[in-house]
Amino acid sequence: MSRLATVLLLASSVRLAAAATAQIFAPASKGPLVQSANYTSFSNSTLKDRPTCKGKAFNRIIQVWLENTDFATAASTPIFEALAEQGILLTNYNAVTHPSEPNYVAAIGGEFFGMHDDNMYHIPSNISTVVDLLEDKGVTWATYQENMPTDEFYGFNYNAKNYITPAAADYPYYVRKHNPLIIYDAVSQDPKRVKRVRTFND
Ligand SMILES: *[C@@H]1O[C@H](CO)[C@@H](O)[C@H](O)[C@H]1NC(C)=O
Ligand SMILES: *[C@@H]1O[C@H](CO)[C@@H](O)[C@H](O)[C@H]1NC(C)=O
Ligand SMILES: *[C@@H]1O[C@H](CO)[C@@H](O)[C@H](O)[C@H]1NC(C)=O
């Protein structure tokens, strides 16, 4: 069963009432500019966008999506506790349906188009997304996908060496259903926009 826990962390002074036992995560890499040995993708260096418009309270927004972990588990890890202490913790989450893919699609396009599975879809280019809203206001954006093999990857899933259980078979750490922008042709078929669908190593 896959649970969708979308965590939008803008800050918080609220401590979680029901703190679960923190899961132990191996660090993805030794530092923000160090490529993890466990990831398959190339590092193509970061996008060189400067802030294009000044926000009233902040200039950048980062939305962190955690998949297949419970809210309480993720929120009780030291890194998220530290972030939450710096501002607002948002705790009211609702899925629009089940399973994963339609929820991801709805988060980007405001609609899940009656989808009820995790199959291979592409949504016609006449359907607009949050990207149109951002670009209309001159706000730059990018999406970073863990274990995606290359920037702009369009494939369904990608199997990589199993770095949790090395003796086990290769594992699909990257799955397309969790990468909603690539599902929209308005992004994936636009040569300029698709360059902003990046691997996490960037
Ligand atoms: C790779 O994953 C293993 C198992 O989780 C972990 O022990 C190790 O620290 C990771 N290596 C890197 C470079 O992230
Ligand atoms: C990223 O790097 C790889 C390997 O050097 C290259 O094949 C690919 O075209 C690069 N992608 C972008 C978007 O620069
Ligand atoms: C959008 O494009 C699809 C596929 O080409 C077409 O079936 C649909 O009628 C179009 N919708 C609108 C509102 O133009």
Bound molecules: 2-acetamido-2-deoxy-beta-D-glucopyranose
Distance between the termini: 30 Å
Low-confidence residue ranges: 1-19
Q: So what's the overall shape?
A: globular
Helix content: 10-25%
**SS summary, helix count:** 7
What strand order characterises the main sheet?
1-3
Q: How many strands?
A: 8
Provide the residue-averaged pLDDT.
83
**Most strands sheet:** 2 strands, antiparallel
What structural class should be given to the helix and strand makeup?
alpha+beta
Question: What gyration radius follows from the Cα positions, in whole Å?
Answer: 17 Å
Secondary-structure element string: EEEHHEHHEEEHHHE
Report the β-strand fraction as a percent range.
5-15%
Description:
The chain has seven helices and eight strands; from the N terminus they run βββααβααβββαααβ. The protein is of the alpha+beta class and about 200 residues long. The protein has a domain of about 140 residues. About 20% of the residues are buried. The N terminus is likely disordered. Bound molecules: 2-acetamido-2-deoxy-beta-D-glucopyranose (3 copies). One 2-acetamido-2-deoxy-beta-D-glucopyranose binds next to loops.
